[in-house]
Amino acid sequence: MNTAMRITCIIITRNPTHCHDLIMQLHRYGHHIIVVHPAATPAPPNAMSITTPALISPAAARNLGAMHATSELLCFIDDDVRIDGDVPHILAHVFVAPHVVACGAVLVDHPHNTYWPRALHRMAFAPQYHRYAQRIPPLLASMMLVVRRVTFTQVGGFDPTFHTPAGEDADFALKLRSLGTLMTLPQARITHHPHATDWLSITRRCWRYGVCWPRIRLRHPTQVRPLPFPASVTALALVCGAPLFALYDTLRAWRVGHWYGHWWLRTWWYVGVAWGMHHAHD
Fold first, then answer.
1. Which of 54, 90, 138, 162 could bond 188 through an S-S bridge, CB–CB 3.0 to 4.6 Å?
2. Under 8 Å CB-to-CB from 66, ≥6 apart: which residues?
3. By C-alpha distance, which of 213, 193, 172 is closest to 63?
């Protein structure tokens, strides 16, 4: 890999032992690896260890890792993904085009994924799910995302006021999209293995995604479709009509399967949006 294609892989984790295999694989490909984790957990081998006194938000942890990077390209990786080949290097090739500001991998189900993680992939990550992926998506998840370091600095990184793992990557992607094009590459494939796989945990996760959406809408009014009615009216309509709105979305995405799970998670996403309208602030 030449100097212009050097990549720093930044992994945030509660415990580096959760991503030992991922770190070793990235190390074999010759990447510079930074792992941000709480000080009470063991330091990972073959990586720069950045510790925090306590668990901090994903947004703050990614920003902290980026501060210690020296390469031109940054690759943000969640600790619950697995890669198929040298995915960071594959994604890096799109940056020969100056208008591309970020590139993400395509998500593929793993044979060990149970029903609810598969439904989550189809609902929450549809623009990057391999059977439904868009080459130029409206948003990119941060689970495997490559961006130029200069662009990361230009948009101010991730917003640390997003205190939970929800909304910070959508906000970041929209900031990036204001500067250029987001992309996915079908040949860059990852699998996702969420730590919690039961229906209740996955439902709560999608609800949190919905809660954050009104705040993201306020921050990016020119990129997110405006509300057709006042917020109070729209919130009431979403609560009452969430199952029907979710059914409409599910029918549009019928090709990806897992219809019931898609409908259920999308319903709770809409309920979360309604809840978030009463708490959104900028």
1. 90
2. 10, 74, 149, 152, 157
3. 172
SS3 letters across 84-133 = CCCHHHHHHHHHHCCCEEEEEEEECCCCCCCHHHHHHHHHHCHHHECCCC
| Full-model pTM | 0.92
Q: In what order do the strands lie in the sheet with 81-83?
A: 48-52, 32-38, 7-12, 73-78, 144-148, 100-107, 181-192, 81-83
49 contacts 35 by C-beta, under 8 angstroms: yes
- Burial class from Cβ neighbours inside 10 Å (0-12, 13-18, 19+) for residue 161 reads middle
Nearest Cα to 214, choosing from 273, 140, 266, 141?
A: 273
Task: Quote the CA–CA distance of 137 and 198 in Å, as a whole number.
Answer: 28
Q: What is the dihedral of CA 74, 158, 213, 11, to 10 degrees?
A: 50
What are the pLDDT digits (tens) for 208-241? Answer: 999 999 999 989 988 877 655 555 656 667 778 8
Answer for the pair 181, 245: CB distance below 8 angstroms, yes or no: no
Query: Count of residues for the chain?
Result: 282
Classify residue 42 by its DSSP letter. Answer: P
| Locus of tokens 């960071």 | 88
